Amino acid sequence: MFSKIEALCRNCEADTTHSIISTEDNKIKDVKCDVCDSAHNYEKSIKTILQEIEKLPNYKPQKEKDKELSDPIVEYNVTKNYEIFTKIKHKKFGLGMVIEVINHKKIKVEFTDRVIMLVQNHRF
Ligand SMILES: [Zn+2]
Fold it and tell me: What spacing in Å lies between the alpha carbon of 56 and ligand 1's midpoint?
């Protein structure tokens, strides 16, 4: 009996159940699609890939992306605290977005033509 696994089948162009034909170094090598019977290299199922993407540190679900689009643009001020993906309007550089919060005092902001380090939470 072959072990079964959910994998991507290029022939079916979908996730289907596959029989594991061979393994190498404890990794799945060749599989055979139970639906169309074609044998091919194992490819992760779309479901697995999506789950992996969700685990990435920078992953944001669509809902948050939609929210981002409607987020107001904040006027840049050195004394304020900024979060990642905050849209910023800078007097000199124009519109930008916080792409990295380096630390409590520093943020990295991407403007249309450059990426600049800016100060945040500054106390005069
Ligand atoms: Zn197939």
Answer: 29
Q: How far is the CA of 21 from the centre of ligand 1 (A)?
A: 14
Place of tokens 């029989």: 19
Global pTM exceeds 0.70: no
User: What span, in angstroms and rounded, lies between the C-alpha atoms of 92 and 7?
Assistant: 51
Distance in Å, CA 30 to ligand 1 centroid: 13
* Number of residues written out for the chain: 124
Using the mean position of ligand 1's atoms as its centre, give its distance from the Cα of residue 25 in Å. Answer: 25
Distance 27 CA to ligand 1 centre (A): 20
Contact 97, 85 (CB under 8 A): yes
Residue 35 predicted with pLDDT over 80:
yes
Q: Take residue 31 and report the two structure tokens written for it.
A: 């599989």
User: What secondary structure letter does DSSP report for 119?
Assistant: E
Distance of CA 76 to the CA centre of its chain: 27
Domain boundaries, the chain: 4-55, 62-119
Pick the CATH number of 4-55 from 1.10.3470, 2.60.40, 2.20.25, 1.20.1250: 2.20.25
